[in-house]
Design brief:
By secondary structure, the protein is mainly beta. The chain is built from 2 helices and 13 strands.
């Protein structure tokens, strides 16, 4: 696998080594020893699978103080995946990075503790998988506003009216969320 650094320290795009032939393909989406050798010593406690239709925007979610690191990927369709740095002392605090994840490119994104995370579905449908380092704890969950101008995420929504849950439509601004110290 190949680790590709983003402009935000700790946030990594992971490009797996894919074996392909006329029958199809095979790749390791998770191999504990390979990830450890690459410097990612991770323990996952929960796997999640969501399906979304075109135009659905989920997030930007995070838990604090019981934070979750997430290894995310798409197995059907495509999404624009976004992470926002909420680590108070970070030189990239409040900055975002976005990447297209798709069944076609097979890339994954490692979103460490201390980030808000969300995605916009680009294809007719998308199946999104994510491994979490901590269990879901609704009592510690927050939503950062997907459209907070202080962050300025450049969502690819031209011609789309994003479909947003009631919970996500009440997201807090960067100035209002509890950040990670």
């Amino acid at each position: 696998m190949k680790l590709i650094e983003t402009d935000i320290e700790g946030l990594l795009v992971i490009e797996p080594y894919v074996l392909s032939d006329e029958r199809g393909f095979l790749f390791e989406a998770w191999n504990d020893s390979a990830f450890r050798e690459a410097g990612l010593d991770l323990t996952f406690v929960q796997d999640n699978h969501s399906r979304s239709r075109k135009g659905v925007l989920r997030g930007l979610h995070f838990q604090n103080p019981v934070s979750q690191g997430k290894l995310v990927r798409v197995i059907n369709g495509a999404v624009f995946d976004v992470a926002v740095d909420l680590r108070e002392g970070s030189s990239t605090f409040g900055k975002w990075a976005g990447v297209e994840l798709s069944a076609e490119n097979k890339c994954m994104l490692w979103v460490p503790d201390g980030f808000a995370h969300g995605f916009l579905t680009l294809s007719e449908n998308a199946d999104f998988l994510y491994k979490c380092t901590a269990p879901y704890s609704p009592e510690f969950e927050y939503t950062l506003a997907w459209d907070d101008p202080a962050i300025g995420i450049d969502w690819p929504i031209v011609g789309l009216d994003p479909i947003i849950s009631a919970k996500d439509s009440r997201g807090l601004t960067l100035a209002e969320v509890p950040v990670f110290s």
